[in-house]
Design goal:
The protein is an alpha/beta fold. It has one domain (8-276): Alpha-Beta Complex (Spore Coat Polysaccharide Biosynthesis Protein SpsA, Chain A). 36% of the residues lie in helices and 13% in strands. The protein is built from 9 helices and 10 strands. The protein has helices spanning 62-66, 86-93, 107-117, 137-145, 167-184, 202-206, 228-238, 262-275, 282-313; strands at 26-28, 49-55, 74-79, 98-101, 122-125, 150-154, 161-162, 196-199, 243-247, 249-250. An 8-stranded mixed beta sheet has the order 1-9-6-8-5-2-3-4, sandwiched between helices. The protein has a two-stranded parallel sheet with strand order 7-10. Helix 2 links the parallel strand 3 and strand 4. Helix 5 (167-184) runs parallel beside helix 8 (262-275). Bound molecules: guanosine-5'-triphosphate and magnesium ion (MG).
Length: 314
């Protein structure tokens, strides 16, 4: 698969006109906060794409991922001190891959290290366990090309789904998602999902913990764990960036065991949601909700009018 068609390797053409949700995607999150109009995509006319892959003992799963990734992208695998052949397998499958060693523990630190090493104008984050379909990447890129700052994978919009999520995780994700939507005025449908893509400018909004800091006795810092997706989503919302949700289907990991603990990681997510509220103005949340309701009302009015037209002339 290539992302650029006939354009030069490592780059693709970008429309920098205003925002329109891509086909199969839906606009969500705070709206109308960011100034409308042209969105800068680095300095390049044809932005480049980096794919960041956190991997901890995923040697057996990597063939299902790396062989399906586009050729015309920068690939960065962030190794979590794997004790299997993760690095060797990655290098044999994709000799062009860059291997990065993470500086602390956890998936969040792995992503921060991968983002810091990346050079692309667009950055895709995808798991190494084979549960995210690389074939969906063009949908994410398309949303960014159409003006979204952040293209957020969702298993819970039409066209998405999961063979992997357990009952308890589904319930936890649902309620955590709901809390974020109420507190931050967003319209997310899948808070804790790690398959996303974004414009490089989003890194400033994410403010992930610096990769060169050392935790006490090598401990993880806040944001280094599985709370990272929530941290990213909340900070993107706080900055009022444009988010488009992309339907995504998650399959079960092919081999190996999960690194996530639904209870302890769920608590980290909850604490993140709470601690990120500092400095958030209620007025901003209210304005975002009002803007969203107004947009929804306009859509349903337009829908009604179209239906009526259809009945009259159809
Ligand atoms: N580098 C690095 N990668 C990690 C770490 N923890 C998890 N990952 C990777 O992050 C991705 C998601 O982790 P998973 O363990 O699959 O978590 P999950 O998807 O919630 O769990 P499952 O549904 O059971 O697959 C996988 O590619 C992991 O290899 C870590 O500490 N360091
Ligand atoms: Mg997984």
């Amino acid at each position: 698969m290539t992302l650029v068609g006939s354009s030069k390797a490592g780059a693709m053409a970008v429309e920098t006109t205003g925002f329109e949700p891509p086909s199969g995607g839906s606009e969500t999150g705070p709206r109308g906060v960011q100034a409308e109009g042209e969105l800068p995509v680095g300095q390049a006319a044809e932005p480049t794409v980096s794919i960041v892959i956190p991997a901890k003992n995923e040697a057996r799963n990597l063939p299902h991922v790396l062989q399906k990734l586009p050729e015309d992208c920068e690939l960065i695998l962030v190794d979590g001190n794997s004790t299997d052949d993760t690095i060797a397998v990655a290098q044999s499958l994709r000799p062009d891959i860059t291997i990065v060693n993470q500086t602390r523990g956890g998936k969040g630190n792995a992503l921060a290290c991968g983002f810091a090493a990346s050079k692309g104008d667009f950055i895709v984050m995808i798991d190494a366990d084979g549960s995210n379909d690389p074939g969906e990447i063009p949908r994410f890129i398309d949303a960014l090309r159409r003006g979204a700052h952040f293209a957020k994978g969702s298993r819970f919009v039409s066209g998405g789904g999961s063979d992997d999520i357990t009952f308890i995780r589904r319930i936890g994700n649902f309620w955590l998602n709901k809390i974020v939507n109420v507190l931050y005025g967003t319209n997310y449908t899948d808070l804790c999902y790690g398959y996303n893509a974004f414009r490089r400018e989003c890194l400033d909004a994410m403010r992930l913990p610096a990769t060169d800091l050392r935790g006490e006795d090598g401990a993880m810092l806040w944001g280094d764990g599985f709370e990272v997706e929530t941290l990213i989503n909340v900070r993107i919302a706080k900055e009022g960036l444009r988010v488009t949700e992309i339907p995504s289907f998650e399959t079960a990991r092919h081999f190996g065991a999960s690194n996530l603990n639904a209870i302890s990681d769920g608590i980290r997510v909850l604490r993140t949601i709470h601690s990120e509220r500092k400095g958030l103005k209620r007025k901003v949340v209210r304005e975002r909700k009002a803007a969203r309701n107004a947009a929804e009302a306009t859509w349903s009015e337009a829908d009604g009018a179209l239906l009526q037209l259809g009945e009259e002339f159809g």
